[in-house]
Amino acid sequence: MSKRLDFSVGNSFFRNPWVQAPASTDARDGLGPLFNTNGCQNCHIKDGRGHAPETGDRNAVSMLVRLSIPATTPEQQEAVILSGVIPEPTYGGQLQDFALPDEKPEGRIQIVYEPYPVVFEDGTVVELRKPLLSITDLGYGPMHPDTLMSLALHRQ
Fold first, then answer.
1. What average pLDDT does this structure show over 15-22?
2. Prediction pTM value
């Protein structure tokens, strides 16, 4: 019975949105000032994986952008061994593309897709989509010139 209660409490947090503090809902306040979305279920649609945006979508709710810079000094190379990446100095390790009212999001994610044909051994050709990522409307200055970006779909 306690496992069912644990699940129900967790599922409630998963399904309900977070709100800006202070709020009458103090168990769910604390959103922002920057964020990717205001609730778990917004990314994990039907409790599952996210989905890539279509060309022209105004936001990439189920997808996030990881940011890093190459390790060029011995200290940075040691840090990569310990943590795996060097976060972009201004924007950190993940772009936050939403913000509370009167705040600026870190930037706007834009995706376009380039056709990518793949030929199987039997000669069958299928066309995949290669995402081309750009970040516009940077809210807090330029990114490091060597910034590396990767797309990630939210997962369970």
1. 86
2. 0.80
